[in-house]
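>> received
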Amino acid sequence: MSDPLDGVAPAALDRALAESAAERGLPEYYRDCVRPLLRMPVTQWPRCCNGGCDPCSEALRAVAAATLARLGISVVERGEHG
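>> returned
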């Protein structure tokens, strides 16, 4: 599977992630929890376990999806086979 972030400038990735996190209220110190999701198939993203985690996996998923969208990468295209 190819890296969906190939060709994305680090500054553009950082900006997209910062904007997506800010608009969803995810604190800056959790942004690094989102980064691995950006390179994983959506089907492998963690789901909420109803355990009261902070941050909830659903919040991380939302920020990851918004970040990819800002970069012009469709979340639908990021299925199991990339």
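>> The chain has a mean pLDDT of 90.
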